[in-house]
């Protein structure tokens, strides 16, 4: 498992709504190309393509952070509930792959993706549109299906629905500048 983080540009403020950044578009592009990926405006390269979930995290306003701390409110779902959902999804995967030598959805090859990641016509249409509009590779296509399968497992449902695909697609890397 790999978890990585990077700033969007050398100064770290590209895309920030409250602070002006000082980097030129050329600087931002050059900075983002330091990760092995393809030319500007094209699909991501081999390294970025192998990372399943990409999330842009905006800067949290200091006043909002202080307010949350003073109210001692949980910002979201408790960890215990998330853990239970993950454990249930892992049990689903364990049962699915019994006798196949696989332990989780990420281990699936193309044959298993075909067997366990079927989608309906609406889902196929969404995938076709995503592949075309976002310039995704065949690897990305299979990674989206595997991640969709995991999202459905976390929801505790048997079939991959269009909203599972849409969520998985939104986690793919965005095109560079």
Describe this structure in words.
By secondary structure, this protein is mainly alpha-helical. The protein has a domain at 80-170. It is 50% helix and 0% strand. The chain has eight helices and no strands. It has helices spanning 25-32, 46-49, 62-71, 79-96, 110-116, 121-134, 138-155, 162-170. Helix 6 (121-134) runs parallel beside helix 8 (162-170). The protein is globular, with a radius of gyration of 19 Å. The two termini are 28 Å apart. The model is unreliable at 37-43 (pLDDT under 50).
Largest sheet: none
Number of helices: 8
Name the shape in a single word.
globular
Beta-strand residue percentage: under 5%
Total number of strands? 0
What order do the SSEs take from the amino end to the carboxyl end, as H and E?
HHHHHHHH
Please state the structural category: mainly alpha
Give the distance, in angstroms, between the N- and C-terminal Cα atoms: 28 Å
Structural topology:
Layout: H1 25-32, H2 46-49, H3 62-71, H4 79-96, H5 110-116, H6 121-134, H7 138-155, H8 162-170
């Amino acid at each position: 498992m790999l978890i990585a983080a990077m700033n969007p540009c050398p100064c770290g403020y590209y895309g920030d709504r409250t602070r002006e950044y000082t980097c030129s578009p050329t600087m931002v592009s050059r900075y983002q190309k330091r990760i092995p990926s393809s030319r500007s405006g094209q699909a991501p390269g081999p390294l970025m393509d192998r990372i399943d979930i990409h999330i842009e995290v905006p800067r949290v306003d200091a006043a909002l952070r202080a307010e949350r701390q003073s109210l001692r409110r949980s910002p979201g779902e408790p960890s215990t509930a998330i853990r239970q959902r993950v454990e249930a999804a892992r049990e689903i995967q364990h049962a699915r792959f019994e006798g196949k030598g696989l332990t989780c959805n990420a281990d699936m090859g193309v044959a298993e993706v075909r067997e366990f990641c079927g989608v309906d016509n609406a889902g196929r249409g969404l995938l076709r549109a995503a592949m075309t509009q976002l310039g995704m590779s065949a690897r990305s296509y299979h990674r989206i299906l595997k991640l969709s399968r995991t999202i459905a497992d976390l929801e505790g449902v048997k079939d991959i629905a269009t909203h599972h695909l849409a969520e998985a697609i939104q986690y793919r890397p965005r095109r560079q500048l």
